[in-house]
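Q: C-alpha cells for this one, please.
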Amino acid sequence: MVATLLSLLWIPQAAAHAVLLERYPAENASLPSAPDEVRLRFDEAVSPISVRVLDASGRPVAGPEDVSETDKTVHVRLPQNLPAGSYVVTYRVVSADSHPVAGSFVFAIGPAAPDAGLNARLADASGIPSWAIFATALRALFYAAFLLGAGGSLFLVFVDRQSPTVRADRRDSLAACIAAALLLAVSLGVEGASAAAAPLAGLLDPAVWRIGIRTTMGGSAAVTLFGLAMLILGLVQRISQAASVVMVAGAILAAAGFGVTGHAATAEPRWLTTPLLVLHVLCAAYWAGALVPLYRRLGREPGRVTAPVVARFSRLALGIVPVLFAAGLAVAFVQVRTPEGLIATAYGQRLVAKLILVTGVLFLAGLNKLKLTPALERGEPGAARFLRRSIAAELMLIAGIVVATAMLGQVTPPRAEEAQGHDPEPQSQGVTVTAMAGNRKLLLEVAPAHPGNNRLTLTLVNADGTPAVPLDVTVWLSSPALGIEPGEHKAVRTAPGRYVVDAPLPIAGLWTIEVDALVTDFEKATFTTTVPIR
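A: Here is the predicted structure, written as C-alpha cells:
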C-alpha cells in the first residue's frame, strides 16, 4: 500500500517557487534604442546563480561582474550602444525556499522583430540530470537518519537509559546522527548542482558547492549540523545529566534548522509557522526514533522487563502525539488554504497520500496503546510478539511518510500558487512585435498574450515617422500549427495611426497575425508576424 500510494504521486512537476513579477525589457519587446540594463523583479529575495544576456550568435554581451541584486530585483548592466538585433536573457536564481527558478525570454533592438527561434537555438540542456530525483532521495534518507538519531537520543534521555540494550541504542543513534550529517552535507552539493543546472560531474566542482552553501539550505544545514554535532557529543559519553542536557539542546537546535529553508521559510506568518514546524519535527523524532529501541527490547528482553519501558514511552507519547498532529495540520492548512487545494494541486495530492499513511500509523498507535500495551503489562502470552509486529508495521508506514514528506518539497504549495495567480502584476505584460510592409512599419501589442480574450493594439507609421492613416484596417488571426484557419476582425481607430481589435485567442501556441491596411483604393499594405500565446 505504501509503495502504491507514493508511486502514483511521483510525477515530475514543474514548480516555480519565486515568482517573476516584472521583466525589462518585456518579453518579445522591440525597443527603438538599446536599454541601459535588464531588470528581473521577483516576489521575494533571490540569489542569482547565472544571469546572462546573449546576442543572436550566442555570445554574452554582459559578464558576471555586471549582475547585481537589490532587494527583490536582479539587475544586469548592459554595455552602451548595443547594436540592433535580437537578444535572449536567460536566468537561473535560487528562491528563499532553496528551489532553483529558471527562465528566458527574447527582446530586440531596432526595427527588426524579435527572433522567436533564438531562445530555442541557444538553449542546450543536454546531459543535465534530473537533480530533483537526487535531491528527493537524499532528503528522504536524511529525514530518516535524523528521526532515528535525534529520536533515539531523546528516547535515551526521557524513556530508558538503564536497559542492557542501551549500548546498542547509543550505537544506532550515533550512526544515524553521523549519517544525517553526511547526507546533509552531500545535499548542499546537489542543491548547488541543481541551481546551476550542472551535469553530474559538476559535483566535483567547488564552485557548485559554494552555490549550494549560499542558498537558504546552506544556513539551514549550518544550524542542523551544529545540533547534530551536539547530539554526537552527548552520545559518545556515558549517559549522564550533563550529557542529557547536551543531547536535548542538540535535538532542538537540529530541528530548528528545518525552519530556515523549504516552504516554511516563505510561509506567513513566519512567527507562527516556523515554531510549529520545529515543534512538529521534534515530536515526530521522539515518536519515530523510539520505535527502533522498543522493537529491539521486545525481541531481546522478557515482557515483564520491557512492559515498564513501553508504558513510560506511551505516557509521554499521549501528550506528544496531539501536539505532533496539531502542529502538522496547522502548517498544512497554511500551505493548502482550501479543500480544493488538496485535490487540484500536486502538493495537495501528495499531502493526502501522507495523511493516509499517517492515519494508518494512528490506527496502529491506538491499537498499541489500548490493547497490546495493557496485554504486555498483564503478562499475556504472545503480547510482546504482537506488539513487536505492530511496531514493525508502524516503522514501514513512517518510512512511507518520510518519502512523502521529501516529495512535498519538490512541488509548489497552493499558498504560493495562489500568490502567483493573484499577483497584481502578472508575469507577462503582453507581447510587442514589429513588422514591415515596404517602407511602412507596424508596431503590434498583444495583451495579455494568454489564452482567451486579448486586445491587439496596432500603431502604423510611415517611412518619415508620421502616423499612417489607412482607409481601413483588417486583422486576420490564424494558427497553422494548431489547424486554425484565418479569422477576420475589423480594427477600430482610436487615434491617428492607432487601431485596436478585441479578439479571442483561445488556445496556447504560435499564432499568425496578418494586418491588411487599405492605404488607398488602389494600394494595400500587408503586415505579417507571429506571436506566442502562453
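A few notes: The radius of gyration is 30 Å. The mean pLDDT is 81.
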